[in-house]
Design brief:
This protein has 119 residues and is α+β, with helices and mostly antiparallel strands. It is built from 2 helices and 6 strands, in the order E-E-E-H-E-E-E-H.
């Protein structure tokens, strides 16, 4: 989860990918032997062309979709430079209270409850 000036960066999964069209927090799968933080730095560099500083872990979520199982590790991050969508994906900076307006995969639902302010 990349944060800057109170906003969180989200990207939209491109057509032809698993869960295409849903919004997500940038990141991706680790290579064999790669730690989650290392994978996050690599994926952010590949997807957004910036260097990430990985901070505290927020949460780990295990989720089972009809076609696959995932374990998501969420970390607070900051980046050096201005992110650019290098894979043609949409990208937005969103305030935490506006996150519920975007459609995220089911596995992200638990994290969204931690990020959106209670009214």
């Amino acid at each position: 989860m990349i944060e800057r000036d109170g906003a969180i960066l989200i990207t939209r999964r491109p057509p032809g990918t698993h869960l295409a069209g849903f919004w997500e927090f940038p990141g991706g799968k680790p290579h064999p032997g790669e730690a989650p933080g290392q994978a996050l730095r690599r994926e952010i560099a590949e997807e957004l062309g910036v260097e990430a500083r990985v901070g505290d872990k927020i949460e780990t979520i295990d989720w089972e979709y009809a076609d696959k199982r995932v374990r998501l590790h969420f970390f607070r991050c900051t980046v050096s430079g201005e992110p650019r969508p290098l894979e043609g994906q949409e990208m937005k900076w969103v305030l935490p209270e506006d996150l519920p307006r975007y459609e995220f995969p089911a596995a992200d639902a638990a994290l969204l409850t931690h990020l959106t302010p209670k009214h």
